[in-house]
Amino acid sequence: MRQAQFFSPTRRDIPQGAEIASHQLMLRAGLIRQTAAGVYSYLPLGLKVLKKVENIIKEEMDRAGAQQLLMPAVQPAELWEESGRLSDYGPELMRLKDRHGRDFVLGPTHEEVITSLVRDELNSYKKLPVNLYQIQTKYRDERRPRFGVFRSREFLMKDAYSFDVDEGGLDKSYQQMYEAYKRIFTRCGLNFRAVQADAGAIGGTGATHEFMVLSDVGEDTIAYSDTSDYAANIEIAKVVDMYEKAPEPQKAMEKIDTPGVKTIDELTSYLSIDPKQLLKSVLFIADDEPVLVVCRGDHEVNDVKVANACQVSAVRLAEPEEIEAIMGASAGFIGPIGVSENVKVLVDQAVKTVSDGVCGANMNDVHYQHVYPTRDFPVEAYGDYRFIQEGDPSPDGKGNIRFAKGIEVGHVFKLGTKYSEAMNAHYLDENGREKPLVMGCYGIGVSRTVAAIIEQHHDEHGIIWPTAVAPFDIHLLILNTKNDEQTQLGEQIYQELQQHGYDVLLDDRKERAGVKFHDADLFGLPVRITVGKKAKDGIVEVKTRRQRQVEEVPVGDLPSYLVTLFEQIDS
């Protein structure tokens, strides 16, 4: 490709509103342009990278035995009613009506469509297992699109769905996808971790793993062991029950006035106590039912664990007026003592260590002191309802927990029969008995993966593409297009490199050398070849994007030199 005709508009400035490196560089290097908030056009350079990632995904999905298809983005709303997700999914679901007033949604995911597609086709155990995948645009009406294509309203996704006769078959399909994902992200040049995760709005039971690219700009926190390969999203990382029950205090519980003192920091200062002595109470609403969660003052309640304990898809924090109506006091003064029977109380396992504690008295400006769990309020059973913390023992019994930030680029789920039972997708087993299909779901954010690669592979000058996903292999610069010797040698090298199978971007623009070097660094192609003043001697300069060192290479030696150079880059 000749750069003089290549549609690759670059920018020198940092675009307004672009907070992270990948967003800035995708705009500056001309990979994308914003059409609306959270909606982007991919320009030729960006599309070439997107296709490189797609091809890696296709190769590994095909290798794992999956078959590619393409489903509609516009989905009948009645399919979502069948699954029960039309009202549950939330405001992110984009809805529309056709001219006849029929309700549709723009697909954020395709569990409903794939289940409706196969339920009349995969009707015998003889046709199973099957794994079907697509690469398609998805739509989610994000409240606050940000970070470029990381959190956008329209994005490219690979989603796959496996169908098996039983859980054993699902385990096998799940493992095949798990291994395929490891190969995909390794080939993309990413430093990632597969972490245990929550199923979220997709649903299902059993194992689920997120594939997280390690990055300081990640919106998710990974809890990992410092001595083993354990890793989990902080939302679901289990806390080891290492707590011994504290001895009962000598003093009886009593009320104390705490006017205006309601936060943990205020209470510890006001009473001169350790946060570990405080019993923090948080009121949630789970399917319209109030749930009070009690944890230690030095811990934070984990809403995902609370939702799982209540067997609901999600819980929400109670509104101030709800707290007043249910508990009789405002937040900061509520507690587990004298709670109505209509309120479910969950007590975190660390609370058993509390002796001589302090908690809200369910009256404004009043707390209880000398509180002892089980003596002063009932505890049916202790559970794990808090976020894990750095330094806690690793759940696998090996080492201690550390935190890292991560960008989710892939997620694999065991759906089980959640959708097949709701949508009557059954098969006949070898005995002629009707059974629900056992499903798995496997997604990769293709456009997210491109941005994640840039986050891990860039410097102050621009992008540094891994060779497997680079839009071109080589950037060939003719520094002075008015010089016949440089132009002729550049054209000769351009033709020869293409004959050797390299994808080459030839900078034949009538621009200053500084502009060409600047754009070459910004584009970040693996190898740069510069045809300059020594063209008359048949010598060019070669450098890799990752290294700053420049080597002078005779044109005759260039083919063999490049073979060795690319082997070194990929090693």
Automatic annotation (TrEMBL):
Subunit structure: Homodimer.
InterPro entries, per database record: aa-tRNA-synt_IIb, aa-tRNA-synth_II, aa-tRNA-synth_II/BPL/LPL, Anticodon-bd, Anticodon-bd_dom_sf, Pro-tRNA-ligase_IIa, Pro-tRNA-synth_IIa_bac-type, Pro-tRNA-Synthase_IIa_type1
GO molecular function (one): proline-tRNA ligase activity
Family: Belongs to the class-II aminoacyl-tRNA synthetase family. ProS type 1 subfamily.
Main location: cytoplasm
Reaction equation(s) it catalyzes: tRNA(Pro) + L-proline + ATP = L-prolyl-tRNA(Pro) + AMP + diphosphate
Pfam families for the chain: HGTP_anticodon, tRNA-synt_2b, tRNA_edit
Lineage of source species: Bacteria, Bacillati, Bacillota, Bacilli, Bacillales
Keywords: Aminoacyl-tRNA synthetase, ATP-binding, Cytoplasm, Ligase, Nucleotide-binding, Protein biosynthesis
Enzyme class: ligase
Residue ranges of every copy of the Aminoacyl-transfer RNA synthetases class-II family profile domain listed in the record: 38-466
Protein name per UniProt: Proline--tRNA ligase
Biological role stated in the UniProt entry: Catalyzes the attachment of proline to tRNA(Pro) in a two-step reaction: proline is first activated by ATP to form Pro-AMP and then transferred to the acceptor end of tRNA(Pro). As ProRS can inadvertently accommodate and process non-cognate amino acids such as alanine and cysteine, to avoid such errors it has two additional distinct editing activities against alanine. One activity is designated as 'pretransfer' editing and involves the tRNA(Pro)-independent hydrolysis of activated Ala-AMP.
PROSITE patterns noted in UniProt: AA_TRNA_LIGASE_II
EC numbers for this chain: 6.1.1.15
Location in or out of the cell: Cytoplasm
Domain notes per entry: Consists of three domains: the N-terminal catalytic domain, the editing domain and the C-terminal anticodon-binding domain.
